[in-house]
Design brief:
It is a single chain. The protein is mostly helical. It has 14 helices and 2 strands; from the N terminus they run αααααββααααααααα. It has a two-stranded antiparallel sheet with strand order 1-2. Helix 1 crosses helix 3 and helix 5 runs antiparallel to helix 11. The longest helix is centred in the first third of the chain and has 36 residues. It is globular. The termini are far apart.
Length: 347
């Protein structure tokens, strides 16, 4: 009779980190909606939301409704979705390669997306959604190439996959440098800002295009928690437990490519989120991916919303690229990881 209470307590313990991260996300999102060049109080925010829901409340003013619904809300939703997708991709990559330094950028998604977008910028293509579409296709194609290069006798070799990713990223950097040299001044400015990541172009249109892809890919990564737990024991042990390791690797590569490709397509390159957030959350949840992945998604969303809010307010009326802030935070964190795991085998 004591089994049921113990199971209930275990389930409750698994939910606690996610509940904490959800509360953090709600607080950050409210702050992001209220802070800016047009500050809003919590009662004003409540009045705007209540008025939109048809409640008998007085609207605090037309500018308040416009600021919330047309400017800040789509930006907050997009930032949260991108943060969750990048953080989940990072946690999946670290488990797949059993390497604490693994990052979604290592599989070439960001490099391929950047090259495709840069080609359109330099060519002067301005068709609606052409840039996000090209970036998404470039990221997925680069990932497919790297995955193909890593296959040998029906198996995916993790070390070869990472090395192929490094090589493709290096070639993508060379192509980007050549395109930057050839670009006109306006195109170069747009290219530079895009490569540093920004939510300045966030809107309901971009959100409608990118959110379904990121949401579906993130949900599919969450479903792989059991397989990722088995992989922590090693590929042979996971196979003995009935986990189809090669199919799991292919699925995760596809989900990560879709999530990161869609994120890069609408915001540009934002680094280090997939590296930092899983480590922070793992300190709270432990290695069990049934707890780690949901909490990581919520924490990644909170971090990205906070970083974007800081980017648009710290130097107002100018706006900093959000990728600069995440790099300033992620660079020292990466060095700390190197020092922490110095002398240990990472592969």
């Amino acid at each position: 009779m004591r089994v049921m209470p113990e199971r209930a307590a275990a389930r409750s313990g698994r939910r606690l980190p996610a509940v904490f991260c959800a509360m953090l996300l709600a607080a950050v999102a409210l702050a992001a909606l209220a802070v800016g060049a047009y500050p809003l109080s919590l009662p004003q925010l409540a009045a705007v939301v209540g008025h939109a829901l048809g409640l008998p409340v007085a609207l605090p003013g037309a500018p308040a409704a416009t600021v919330v619904w047309d400017l800040r809300l789509p930006r907050v939703i997009l930032a949260g979705t991108v943060g969750a997708a990048l953080a989940l991709a990072g946690a999946s990559m670290q488990a797949l390669f059993r390497n604490p330094l693994a990052d979604p950028g290592l599989i070439g998604v960001s490099g391929g997306a950047a090259v495709a977008a840069a080609l359109l910028m330099v060519a002067g293509v301005t068709a609606p959604f052409a840039l996000p579409s090209a970036a998404f296709c470039g990221g997925v194609l680069a990932t497919a190439l790297i995955y193909r290069l890593s296959r040998y006798r029906g198996r995916t070799l993790p070390a070869t996959l990472l090395l192929a990713g490094v090589a493709v990223n290096a070639m993508a950097g060379a192509v980007l440098g050549m395109l930057a040299y050839l670009a006109s001044a306006p195109a170069l400015r747009g290219l530079t800002f895009w490569l540093l990541g920004s939510f300045a172009q966030a809107g309901w249109g971009r959100l409608a295009v990118a959110l379904p892809v990121m949401a579906v890919a993130s949900g599919l990564m969450l479903r792989e928690a059991g397989g990722l737990n088995a992989l922590l024991l090693g590929e042979r042990e996971a196979a003995h437990l009935g986990v189809p390791v090669q199919r799991l690797t292919a699925r995760l590569m596809l989900w990560v490519a879709l999530a990161v490709g869609a994120a890069v397509a609408v915001t540009g390159i934002i680094g280090f989120v997939g590296l930092m957030v899983p480590h922070w959350v793992r300190m709270l949840t432990g290695p069990d991916h049934r707890r780690l992945l949901p909490a990581t998604a919520l924490a990644g969303a909170a971090l990205m919303i906070a970083a974007d809010t800081l980017a648009r307010t710290v130097a107002a009326p100018a706006e900093l690229p959000v990728g600069v802030l995440t790099a300033l935070l992620g660079g020292p964190f990466f060095l700390w990881l190197l020092l922490r795991y110095r002398g240990r085998a990472l592969w």
